[in-house]
Every structure is written in structure tokens, then in C-alpha cells.
Amino acid sequence: MKDLLGKAILDFQTNNNPQNVITETDISEAEEMDIAYLFRSYKEMPKIEQKALNLAKGNILDVGCGAGAHTYYLQEKGCDVKAIDISPSSIEACKLRGIKNAEVLNLLDIKDEKFDTILLLMNGTGIFGRLVNTTKYLQHLKSLLNPGGQILIDSSDLIYMFDEDEDGGKWIPMENKDYYGELTFTVAYKGEEDEPLEWLYLDYNTLQNAAHSNGLNCDLIIEGENCDYLAKLTLI
């Protein structure tokens, strides 16, 4: 991976001629994203993210932290929070903006650490990649929880993006897919394009069923305006 999203984040942090990022999926047209959005304040965040940050407590892990907007807010509140991302440039930007505990690290590589709150926000199920990987990730997340701990994770039901047929059903092309929320996600920045990334959106019922199958309670905390939601997973 060229880490183009991370480079855009670092360019913004260092004022190195930052430009908009172009994102595209296999079910949507290319869109421009202002990289400044990833540096948004608490007041600028969607209600789902605000709710998650309000519920965060104890020793907190922010997974896929990006520019560190969530970690920065929690740190300013005096919380004990660790930010991780697989993007070296993103973590460099986090450190430059003053985040104390930020590390280039894959979630699946964390060993011998426990947390009271694990945050997976901005479509936290995305890192699962494919539906088939859900159990692997949920089992690992479960192993990282302290007794009484919580996983706060958000996602969206993408069914609304597909066309209806004459009978009112949805026409969903499923070639090379096991589930309609499996997407291929591509980032372009300053004339370069990164390698395609597998990215998973889970509807709430599918997440809830997967959680129960893996020994986790799943509670719906809040729903957004675009078929999105925040869920809380806890140990049974």
C-alpha cells in the first residue's frame, strides 16, 4: 500500500500543499473528500461519534485512528487512550498534533493488553474486510476486553444503495461476494492511486447475530440518518 490517505493526513498536519482525496468503491462513483474533515472537532462530528466518545471510559483503544480526531478529544478530556493505525504517515501526524500514545500497529497484532473501551468508528466494521473474517476479528476484540469492558463500533446497512426491481425487491450484484456490504475501496491522491482495499459494511442484524455467535452481547445504542448505527458489544 502507498498509504495515500496517510500522506494526505500528514500533508494537512504539516501544511504541505494538502489536496482533496478521491475515494471510489465498486458500487459508487468517485467522490472528493476534504482531508480537513478527518481533523474535525467534537462539535463537528456526527451524533453517532459524539455518543461513542461520551460512552468511552477507562483504558481506551482507538482502532484505525486516522488523523486522531477521536483520540485527541478524549486526551483533552484527560482520558487514558491509545491510538493505533496501520498507516505510518497517519501516526506521524497524530504525534505531531500532540497525541501522546500513538503507534503503527495492526489490531490483530495486539497481545497481552486489555482495555475497558475499544473504539472502532467511521465504519468500524470496515477493517474486517470480508464477512468471513468477522469471527476472527470479534474473537480477537473479545480477548482484549477487561471484565466489564465494551466495544463501541459503528457501521451502515448499504441496502439502500441498490436499485429495486419491479416487485419491490432489491437487485444486488453479488459476483465474487458473500454479502452485499462487501466493497472494494480505492483512494487516489495527488495523481497516485492506492491498491484496492476490501472494506466491509455490516447491517445491525448481521452484526448482532455474529456477536451472539462469538459470545458477545450486542446492543443498539443509536441510529443515524443514513442507515448507520452505533452498537455496543460486551462480554456475556
TrEMBL record:
Cite a single GO BP annotation: methylation
Alphabetized UniProt keyword annotations = Methyltransferase, Transferase
What residue stretches are annotated with the Methyltransferase domain?
A: 58-173
What is a GO molecular function of this protein?
methyltransferase activity
Highest taxon of source: Bacteria
Q: Which Pfam families match?
A: Methyltransf_31
- Presence of the UniProt keyword Protease in the record: no
**InterPro entries referenced in this protein's UniProt entry, alphabetically:** Methyltranfer_dom, SAM-dependent_MTases_sf
- Please report the name of this protein according to its UniProt entry: Methyltransferase
